[in-house]
Amino acid sequence: MRAIVFDFDGLIVDTESAIYVAWREIYLHHGHDLPLETYVQCVGSTFGHYDPMAALEELTGGPVKWDEVLPRKDERIRELQQGLGTLPGVRELLLAADRAGIPCAVASSSQNSHVFSWLDRVGLRDAFSLIRTRDNVRQAKPSPDLFLAAAEGLSLAPGETLVLEDSANGLRAARAAGAPCVIVPSPVTRGSDFSGAAGMLETLAGVELDHLRGLHAAS
Fold first, then answer.
1. What is the pLDDT of residues 150-193, one digit of tens each?
2. Helix (H, G, I), strand (E, B) or coil at 52
3. Out of 7, 14, 145, 166, which one is annotated catalytic?
4. In 3D, which of 118, 120, 124 has the Cα closest to residue 94?
5. Which of 61, 92, 127, 147 sits in a 20 to 30 Å window from 133, CA-based?
6. Distance of CA 86 to the CA centre of its chain
């Protein structure tokens, strides 16, 4: 294990819970529910994998006034994300990796503007040697492009990195790239199928580098 590659949403900051709540409220307003097991299909990826907008129009049988709905959704997300900080153990793991000389990277299916804004907000941009988002690659997860780009940017083979992910789409992307992947589920992704993961952790709190090295070696 010569580097650690972090997903962003749901792993560093739990941005995903607010986004799901906002989408579910839109569905309920239009007379339909949005079960978590349905919505989770797009977590860690883009709407090209599962599109809640197209799905709602199919349920309602007609067009939705998205020019009115989407700004309200975005405002609701901002309201629900007020005061969010990093998830337990993230800062401690980054500090331990820095002390051990292990570079850390971010590989996220979100856009540059989203990832950099949040990293600045929580004061962690400088903790990462490399940041790759969907703006830097042809395809987002579950394509392997992001993890291949991260490994290349670190001048490592994918198998020399350890990916930390919270989503099934992220796991599929890491496996396709040939990078061992440890899952730390978020509230939104808990209950997904994580078959093939190199390991699963309830949280990053208290996780030692030696434990991650062992999971990487065993993979």
1. 999 999 999 999 999 999 999 999 999 999 999 999 999 998 99
2. helix
3. 7
4. 124
5. 92
6. 13
